[in-house]
Design brief:
The protein is an alpha/beta fold. The chain has two domains: about 150 residues, Quinone Oxidoreductase, Chain A, domain 1; about 150 residues, 3-Layer(aba) Sandwich (Rossmann fold), CATH 3.40.50. Helix content is about 30%, strand content about 25%. The strands form three sheets. Strands 3, 4, 5, 6, 7, 14 and 15 form a seven-stranded mixed beta sheet that branches. It has a six-stranded parallel beta sheet with strand order 10-9-8-11-12-13, sandwiched between helices. α5 links the parallel β9 and β10. α3 packs across α10 and α9 packs across α10. The structure holds NADP nicotinamide-adenine-dinucleotide phosphate (NAP). The site of NADP nicotinamide-adenine-dinucleotide phosphate has 28 residues, from α1, α3 and α4.
Amino acid sequence: MKKIICKEFGPVDNLVWEDTEDHEPLPNEVVVDIKAAALNFPDYLIVQGLYQFQPPLPFTPGNEGAGIIKKIGSEVTKHKVGDRVSFMSAIGAFAEEMVLDQNLVFKMQDDMSFEVASSYQLAYGTSYHALVQRGNLSKDDEVLVLGGSGGVGLAAIDIAKALGARVVAAVSSQEKAQICSDYGADDIVLYGSSKLEKEQQKTFTSELKAKSIKGGFDLIYDPIGDCFAEPSFRSIGWGGRYLVIGFAAGEIPKLPLNLTLLKGASIVGVFWGTFTALEPETNKNNIKKLNQMVTDGKIKPLISQTIPMKDAISAINLIGNRGVTGKVVLVNNEE
Ligand SMILES: NC(=O)c1ccc[n+]([C@@H]2O[C@H](COP(=O)([O-])OP(=O)(O)OC[C@H]3O[C@@H](n4cnc5c(N)ncnc54)[C@H](OP(=O)(O)O)[C@@H]3O)[C@@H](O)[C@H]2O)c1
C-alpha cells in the first residue's frame, strides 16, 4: 500500500510517495480502498507546518475522500465490505487505502461518482453553513463572493444562485471570471494577480459598489483576506454581514471597527470543522439538503482536474500557484 508521507514540515516538494504496511482494522474500524481524494487549501498549509493544527510527524495529508470498503473490524455494524463510501478526516486521504472509525464513513449516493463524493462536502458544506446559518441568506440578498473561482468560492456562487440571491464574483483573471459566469454569477469584478496598493484599493471599492444594484452588498463571502478585505468591506450595504472564511491571499487583515458602525454591519466568523463537531445534526441536515440539490441538478460541483494520487506533490503545489479552479481531485484508479 502506498501513501504520500510528510516526514518533516517544509516545502511541498519534500513529500514522498512511499510503500507502507497494509492496514488491519480495529474492532470499530473499516479499511477503505480510496478511489478519489480531494485537494483543499489546508493540505498546502499543513505540510509546511503553517496550518492551525499540526499533526504529529510523520503523517499523510488529505482530508476528504471516497472509495470502497475492503475490510471491516469485528464490531462494525454500519457498513459491509463492498460499500461505496465517502469520508472526512483531519489527515490521511492521500493514500491507496485508509483506516477509519466506522462513524466517520458515510454511504455514497448511488448516482454520485467517487470524484464528486470525495470533493464537495468540505467546500459546499462550508459555503452552505456560511451563507445559510452564519449569513442568514435570503433570496432578496445581493452577495459578493471574493476568490469566486476557487473551491469554496465557486461553491458559494453555486449555492447562493440556487437559493435565489443575486451574486457578484471577484477574481484575479478573465479566465476565472468566465468560470464564475458559467456558474451563474450575475456580474464580475477583476482585481488582478498582485497585492493592491492604497489607491488601487480605493478603485476596487468603487468598482464593487458600482456592481451592486442596491448600492452595497448584503453579504460578503471572503476566503482570501489580506489587502482585499478592507476595500471589500467598504462596499457592504446597511445591515450587511461580512463572512470571514479564510486568508488564501496571505495576511490576516485588520479592519477599522468604525466601518461596522457606519454600516450597521457585522463581521461573522465561519469555521466549518468546529461547526461539524459541535452541531453535528445541523451539519447532517445541511449535507442532506446539498445531496438533494445535486440530485435535482440545482448545484453542480466543478471538478476541473483529476490527477493520479502519486502526483499529489504537483497537485498540492497548484494551490500555492493559484492554479486551482473548482476542485482538483486525486485518483487511484479512474472508475
Ligand atoms: N472557514 C472555514 O471553515 C474554511 C473551510 C474551507 C476553506 N477555508 C479557507 O478558504 C480559503 C480558500 O480555500 P479553497 O479550498 O477554496 O482554496 P482554493 O480552491 O485554492 O481557492 C483559493 C482562491 O483564493 C484566491 N487567491 C488569492 N490570492 C491567492 C494566493 N496568494 N494564493 C492562492 N490563492 C489565492 C484564488 O483566486 P484568484 O486567483 O481569483 O484570486 C483562489 O481561487 C483558504 O484560506 C481555506 O483555508 C476555510
